[in-house]
Amino acid sequence: MEKLSFNPFNKKIGLALGGGAAKGLAHIGVLRAFDDKNINISYISGTSVGAIVASYYAFGKNLDEIDQLGERLKAKSVFKLNLDKRGFVSTDSIKQMLLNDIGDVNIEDAKIPLAICTTDITSGESVIFKKGKLIPAVCASVAVPGVFTPVEHEGRLLVDGGITQNVPVAAVKNMGAGITVAVDLNGVNEYQKPMDIFTVVGNAIDIAIDSRTKEQVRLADIKISLDLSKYSLFDNSANKKKLIDEGYKTADQQLSKLVWYRRFNLINSIRKLIKDFIPLKVPEFLKTNKK
């Protein structure tokens, strides 16, 4: 991991959008809250569906255009069966969608600096892409292992970034953000009651990664944690407005804290520096020896 620089006067905002399959429509509401408050995002990162939404936003798509994803990010549109023994669904439909909407572009050409989180299924490493071809990086980030075929890219075999960094806060910190905002779509202690095999698999994956996700979210200055347990992982086109409203409402409440962080960023930065690098210890002479 890259070394983080200490700059108490840095007020640039980094937004990390987490994974959550079809629940990712809530990210649109979060972005609307940023726009309504005229808060500029200096850096953006994403995992899985968060990588898709982050890419559209970073490449200058307006929220009305991103809103249309609600009709397209559903199982019957995304799931295209193939015969690869490493996965029974290809990412071809996502590849085509990105190609039509954004084009065959490089990540470093985004209007907002962008990071896409993936996982190397061979080494187990988290692989963050900040440059190179956008489409294979995003396709890899959404490739849930056991469902989607892994994506071969830049000499690696890549799958869903959620396995290693479901809410990639560290990515925007490393890019230069002074204030970080994390969006966790699975901020719950209970999961949707399974009614089919897809929900069973989805819940199992969520449970496996959620404990690590909580550690990642703790790195953020501002946490937008959403309880979306009543929504489907596979198709929320009928509940698109409700999901967007959920994201907007929670983000609108949490983003009021940005005023505090901007105004007192020097004090907050010193507090974090002391906590991370100068841990308080009890002097030896104050310790009581018990026999």
Description:
This protein has 291 residues and is an alpha/beta fold. The protein is built from eleven helices and ten strands. The strands form two sheets. Strands 1, 2, 5, 6, 7, 8, 9 and 10 form an eight-stranded mixed β-sheet that branches. It has a two-stranded antiparallel sheet with strand order 3-4. Helix 1 (26-36) crosses helix 9 and helix 5 (92-101) crosses helix 6.
What's the quick description here?
Helices cover 38% and strands 15% of the residues.
Count the beta strands: 10
Task: Work out the radius of gyration.
Answer: 20 Å
Q: How do the helices and strands follow one another from N- to C-terminus?
A: EHEHHHEEHEEHEEHEHEHHH
Q: What integer is the average pLDDT?
A: 84
Unreliable residue runs: 1-5, 285-291
What summary fits the major beta sheet? 8 strands, mixed
Q: Key features?
A:
291 residues; alpha/beta; two-stranded antiparallel sheet; 11 helices; disordered N terminus
Which SSEs are present, and which pair or pack?
Blueprint lengths: L12 E5 L8 H11 L6 E5 L1 H10 L4 H5 L7 H4 L1 E2 L7 E2 L1 H10 L12 E7 L5 E4 L4 H8 L9 E3 L2 E5 L8 H7 L3 E6 L12 H22 L3 E4 L14 H15 L2 H7 L1 H13 L14
Parallel strand pairs: 1-2, 1-9, 2-5, 9-10
Antiparallel strand pairs: 3-4, 5-6, 5-8, 7-8
